[in-house]
Write a structure and sequence with these properties.
Structural class: alpha/beta
Strand content: 5-15%
Strand order of the largest sheet: 10-7-11-12-14-13
Helix content: 40-55%
Distance between the termini: 76 Å
Bound molecules: thiamine diphosphate, magnesium ion
Length: 800
């Protein structure tokens, strides 16, 4: 427990709170009015939301937080965060003046784009909140494995808007946190009872309180500020408290907006003839009455600090802090204030109240009553800022070029994945030790079983496998221990992605490198897509293994077929997508992936393939359960490189090539079969194995851009591969996914393309049934070739 807060400190913190509110308001005003003519920005959403948490954030950053603590600040409080960092010397005036502008301080706190050490990005509401919970689990995971013990434990803290609690992912996280025994996690709810459009329902806090308690959280309701608490102790005070407790949210907000005279009238009308309470009301001026009624717990530094200081355990805590949206600003409490901006006239009034001279708006101590030296000394001693840079670093873990695996004559990529991890688990490398796997209840069905058998499940406390104890035969050992390396999640896919986001930032948050691999069924990427996007936006590093996929999962069920996922792989920034067909390709890709997720911009930019490989990123592997005939071949460095770059010729096209079949993934046998059947009727047919449409495409567009900038010799991998193709040759592309994934191949040199793929879904059946039904079988490939590649009829059309 911290020492009790002194009055002198409270005095200074009060001044800083005023300053933070001023700076945040001025930042927003500057972006909207001063810079107005420059770029026509006119966006609200920040002013009222920021004012709501000025006191809470002042208390946190200037007193409560320690360097090891990590915070997710609600999106619209970005200006308050930036103002605080500015006072701590960690943010520049230039960036504040350019708030929401090009390369200025970001609209919502951003780990990747802001310069002032944001711990967790926020923006899509709900995700940052869950990120703190999973980050606490990851901190425990790291320490349970004996890493980073020389560093103090941090608390993972979310400051969230009350309407954020509408997002289901928060409750999914809450449930998972309970299962995993989450600790060192605080969620501070800015209970201003307003969202974007409206005032929230009555009595929500009680539901929240019960809910959090049910999940083992401590709940602290910060309802009354210290002025109110003092007033309640006066004669008649209890009547006032009862009135406050009964007052509907809408009315309270409206009265806050209207001010002291309205409060007086309303209170007198409702409880004014009750003796002592009348005296309590009458003894205050309108201004004092407004201050008293606005003095909710979340605006009272003493109440906030005492609540934070009182936590003497590591159980998770939810603080419900009553606040007023827009507190201290002219539109405080108004239900429409979310998009509210102060007018220049209102800003002038506010400036006068804050004692700020024109031209001194950005001066750190302008208008404050405390002497600057005293304030400076205080700021210099703020514990949060004592740790220097908040981003930690971890050394890279060596990854061999080749991962061993025994390839059976017939195998699926999913089985290959299991075999690769099994081999990895067998050894005792540092690489294997740093891998952590996670899966939302599909561990066995995505073939992580062999890995888990060797590396066991993680839990803070050991739990034996009862079936094993009872000697009941089972293929899988389900044993939990602190040294386990698999995190078994409930089914919620959102949780998988947010956990991957937390695991994938461990090197910078905990200073300890983890190599996270998460598995799920490919279609369910869509369930967690926003969380996946969020993880990528934060630059978290992980490998996502999605299997089974497409219509190839066939009898598994029409509802589980995925069509759009290859396009997600193509389009998602920060995620390099691969879809291998053969296990030796997968082995090369997995080795690359384990290295790629550790890259940090330190490498050389490559002009070989025009990909931004030096910056690294996360990886998406789309795998399949379809066993296919493997090619017996020796992996050469050239082939390995081509696989990683995205494509290679499985059969080189001859000089008079009339048709190329470009395929991806599990349809390889159909593509191979089709070119065999066409060989007699079309000349020099080529077969292009595309292992990553995403990387091929990215390399191509990057090389185009480079040429447009004058680098005339820039050539991408796909341009080199296709350079020898005659112009009249037709390309049939095919994959078990949306045909647009490969359709762009025709744009590289202007070849005609007939893109085959899956556009509809839902039918169950065998693989041949479904490939025929949806038009990706050998016959469909031949028909497409005949339609676009000149020549006589292909005799095997209709026979395949
Ligand atoms: C996933 C998602 N949906 C919608 C939005 C748009 N949005 C931004 S803030 C907000 C509501 C904010 O209410 P609350 O969380 O109570 O914050 P307050 O403004 O009261 O501080 C909404 C709907 C968003 N940012 N993310
Ligand atoms: Mg709100």
């Amino acid at each position: 427990m911290a020492d009790a807060v002194s009055s002198a400190d409270l005095q200074i913190l009060g001044e800083l709170e005023r300053k933070v509110l001023w700076l945040a308001s001025w930042t927003i005003h500057h972006a909207n009015h001063v810079r107005e003519n420059v770029d026509g920005l006119k966006v609200g959403g920040h002013q009222a939301s920021s004012a709501s948490v000025a006191a809470i954030m002042t208390a946190l950053y200037f007193r409560t937080l320690r360097p090891a603590d990590r915070v997710a600040v609600k999106p619209h409080a970005a200006p308050i965060y930036h103002a605080i960092q500015y006072l701590l010397g960690r943010q520049t005036r230039e960036k504040l003046e350019n708030f929401r502008g090009y390369k200025g301080a970001q609209s919502y706190p951003s780990r990747t784009k802001d310069a002032d050490d944001i711990d967790f990005s926020t923006g899509s509401v709900g995700l940052g909140v869950a990120q703190t919970l999973f980050s606490s689990l990851v901190q425990d995971y790291v320490r349970a494995h004996g890493w980073g013990l020389h560093r103090p434990e941090g608390r993972m803290i979310a400051l969230l808007g009350d309407a954020e609690l509408d997002e289901g992912n928060i409750f999914e996280a809450l449930l998972e946190g309970w299962k995993q025994g989450v600790r060192n996690c605080w969620w501070i709810v800015d209970y201003n009872r307003q969202s974007l459009d409206a005032v929230v329902r009555e009595g929500l806090w009680e539901r929240y309180e019960n809910l959090f308690r049910n999940f083992g959280w401590d709940v602290v309701v910060l309802k009354y500020g210290s002025l109110q608490q003092a007033a309640f102790a006066e004669p008649g005070g209890e009547d006032l408290r009862r009135w406050i407790d009964r007052c509907p949210n809408q009315l309270y907000s409206a009265l806050v907006f209207q001010g002291g005279a309205a409060w007086r009238k309303r209170l007198n009308d409702e409880i004014g003839d009750q003796g002592p309470v009348s005296r309590l009301i009458d003894s205050r001026s309108d201004e004092e009455l407004a201050r008293l009624m606005g003095n909710l717990g979340g605006h009272d530094l003493r109440a906030i600090i005492e609540a934070f200081d009182a936590v003497d355990h590591d159980r998770p805590v939810c603080f419900i802090a009553y606040t007023i949206k827009g507190a201290g600003l002219p539109f405080a409490g108004h239900k429409d204030n979310h998009s509210g901006l102060m007018t220049p006239a209102q800003m002038e009034t506010f400036r006068a109240a804050m004692n700020i001279r024109p031209g001194h708006e950005w001066d750190a101590f302008e208008g404050l009553r405390e002497p600057p030296e005293k304030l400076r000394t205080f700021l210099d001693r703020v514990p949060f800022a004592a740790g220097g840079e908040r981003r930690l670093h971890a050394a890279r873990i060596d990854v061999p070029d080749e991962l061993p695996v025994t390839i059976q004559p017939k195998m699926s990529t999913q089985i290959g994945f299991g075999a690769l991890l099994n081999e990895l688990a067998r050894g005792s490398s540092e690489l294997a030790a740093r891998v952590v796997t996670a899966s939302p209840d599909v561990t066995v069905s995505t073939n992580l079983g062999p890995w888990v058998n060797r590396r066991r499940l993680y839990a803070r406390e050991a739990m034996a496998d009862t079936f094993k104890g009872e000697r009941i035969p089972s293929t899988f050992t389900w044993e939990f221990s602190p040294s386990g390396q698999h995190i078994e999640l409930g089914i919620a896919e959102m949780n998988l992605f947010i956990l991957l986001s937390a695991l994938g930032l461990s090197h910078t948050i905990n200073g300890e490198r983890l190599l996270p691999i998460g598995t799920l069924y490919d279609p369910f990427i869509a369930r967690g897509l926003d969380a996946l996007n969020y993880a990528c936006y934060q630059d978290a590093r992980f490998i996502l293994v999605a299997t089974p996929s497409g219509i190839t999962l066939s009898p598994e069920g029409g509802a589980h077929q995925s069509i759009a996922q290859p396009l997600i792989g193509l389009a998602q920034d920060g995620l390099a997508a691969f879809e291998p067909a053969f296990v030796d390709e997968l082995a090369a890709i997995l080795a690359f992936a384990l290295d790629y997720i550790q890259r940090d911009g330190e490498g050389e930019a490559s002009e070989r393939n025009w990909l931004r490989d030096e910056t690294g990123g996360s990886i998406y592997l789309r795998l399949s359960t379809r066993p296919i005939e493997q090619i017996s071949r020796t992996m050469t460095p050239t082939l390995r490189q081509a696989i990683v770059d995205g494509a290679y010729w499985l059969r080189e096209p001859g000089p008079n090539c009339q048709v190329v079949v470009a395929y991806t993934g599990a349809v390889a046998p159909e593509a191979i079969h089709a070119i065999g059947l066409m060989a007699e009727d079309r000349r020099d047919v080529g077969l292009l194995a595309v292992t990553s449409a995403d990387r091929l495409n990215a390399g191509w567009t990057a090389a185009c851009r480079a040429r447009e900038r004058g680098l005339v010799h820039a050539r991408s991998h796909i341009e080199r591969l296709m350079a020898g193709l005659p112009p009249h040759c037709g390309i049939v592309s095919v994959l078990d996914g949306h045909p647009a994934t490969l359709a762009w191949l025709g744009a590289v040199y202007g070849h005609k393309v007939r893109p085959l793929g899956v556009e509809h879904f839902g039918q169950t059946g065998s693989i041949p049934d479904l490939y025929r039904h949806y038009g990706i079988d050998a016959n469909a490939i031949i028909a497409a070739a005949q339609a676009i590649a000149p020549g006589g009829p292909i005799r095997y059309l209709g026979v395949a």
